[in-house]
Design brief:
Elements: H1 3-20, H2 23-34, H3 45-54, H4 61-74, H5 82-92, H6 97-111, H7 114-120, H8 124-136, H9 140-153, H10 158-170, H11 174-186, H12 198-201, H13 205-219, H14 224-236, H15 241-254, H16 259-271, H17 275-288, H18 293-305, H19 309-322, H20 327-338, H21 349-369, H22 374-386, H23 390-404, H24 408-421, H25 427-453, E1 460-461, H26 462-469, H27 473-486, E2 491-494, E3 499-502, H28 507-517, E4 558-561, E5 567-569, H29 570-580, E6 595-598, H30 601-604
Antiparallel strand pairs: 1-3, 2-3, 4-5, 4-6
Length: 605
Amino acid sequence: MDFLLVGKLKTKLEHLFQIKNDHSCVVSKIVDGWVINGLLFKSDELPNILLKALSDPTIKSKQRTSVLIVMKKIGKDILKYFPRFTRVVLTTWYTDKKLIEQYLQTIGSLFGGLTDYLASLSNHLFLADISLLLEVVKKTDCALVGWKKAVALKKDFFYGWVRLSLLYYHLNNLSEAIMTLLKGIEFFGFDIPRGTNKEAFGVNYMHDVELLINLLLKKEKQNYILLYVRGLILSYFYRDFHAAIPFFLRCLKINPTFLKARFKLAAAFGKIKNKKAQIGTLQKIIEEMPEQKEALSELATIWVELKNYALAVQYYKMLHDLEPNNERWLLKLMALYKTSILIVGGPSEKVWKRDLEQAYYYCQKLVKLGPRSYETVDHVYNFLKELNKLEEARDVLLDFLVKNGLDERVLKKLEQVHHWLKIPFDQRKIEQEVNFHRNKDKVFPKILELLSQVRPNIPITLPRIAKFVDFPEEKMEVLLKNLISENPSVGEYLELEQVFIRKENTDVLINNLKVQYSTCYYCGMPIEQPESPICSACGKELLKCNVCKLPISFGELIGQCSLCEAKGHLHHLEEWVKTQGKCPSCLQELPLQGVIPVEVPFKKK
């Protein structure tokens, strides 16, 4: 190849394009002599110029054909640009069937067939573009392959499911069309994604969905899912709730147990301000399923809107009975009882006092549970402040800081409470106290783990304990004294000698304490419900030792089997392998070297 000629050609081409800005002229010159004469242009400029030329709606049909000839002449060097060419053809020349056929023939000639080209694509949007073009020129078999691969690559690609279903309908395969649409809807929990793909595909997304549903309903008038989806389209895309209600009613007449349709029907009644029908629909759900939390919550909200607080309280109490530790229901009940003067029964002093006591009762439950969010602690703080229970308000704020970490908003509230109580406010000391208590929850399990390894009546020094758990000696001494004062049977601490002596027959007690003080291995928060397999703070599965079956706490040394990766306390696994010679989980023979120590997360940080 004459590289000097390539350079001159590139310069001339760029000059022609930049000065004249005439796509037609550029394409004609390329075809007339520069590329057809056998010169392969391997730079990025030519494909970009071809893309700009092809996307120009004023370019003539002959020149568009010339672009395709150039693409074929360039050969496989231009393959990576085909997704961009496909998008341009789809958005600019969607109605030009002749050009689309020529374009698809060009792709087929370079790839050895359209099916091979579809197989080479790994992006669902690229597959959608080419599949739409294949549909325009009636290449149904190839289009089916393209849409099938697109939805296989991205399961929640709803538009792909719709187009695939439409293709099956046009092929008179009605059962497959319905099944395909239902698969797409199932990925969204029997809902349909909102929005439009007009920008992405050059076609109206909802038009295709509505067309498909109407076509299928003509053939399957008694299909409750199709009736339900038609109601969804009218509700959420056209906001025509009056027209949607009959479809939901017909759907429920065919399948009365279809819960989603009943909720959508209730929502539609709510949108048209028919509260009576909305309440009746939700009450039917509760009659059939008394523990349906979503329906109970909806009804409680409606009664609050209607200012019937007594009924709202009734439904929130039912929710609280179902989820006693859900702070949302406790907060709602506290707030409703706070507004007792509005509750049916009159603003008499007796009723007011009774409801205020109820509000305080649920407030105490929230305090005992330990508010997890700032919004909740803010409501509790304001209520306790109104009752002038400032010391309780201070304890709530401190507890929140210990459990959730330092928060400037909570510290400001704490400063106010100290001012009202006439107590000096030292933010530095409070931060140290909070950090101490937060560390205490993480250090206690490690102390207990060490004590479980110590033999009874053998003294162990304070510095050794502090070094083992990686905690300052002064604070460690406070923790040890605290542990012994709460559990005298575990052992004794000799303050003058600074040694701890474990008592005999304390294995059961220490194990019980380990469960009581255990923390999540991943987030370090205390485990509120040891019988639950999931941490309530971070949502991860609790890591448990395969030997002692107790939770592995934050910061504890752990090991794992090199064969099956089963985890446990490091010294437990080592002792087990020494005596048994095999893994406690997979039961395969395992040497001591096969127990691999695992790095502790917080040390890495």
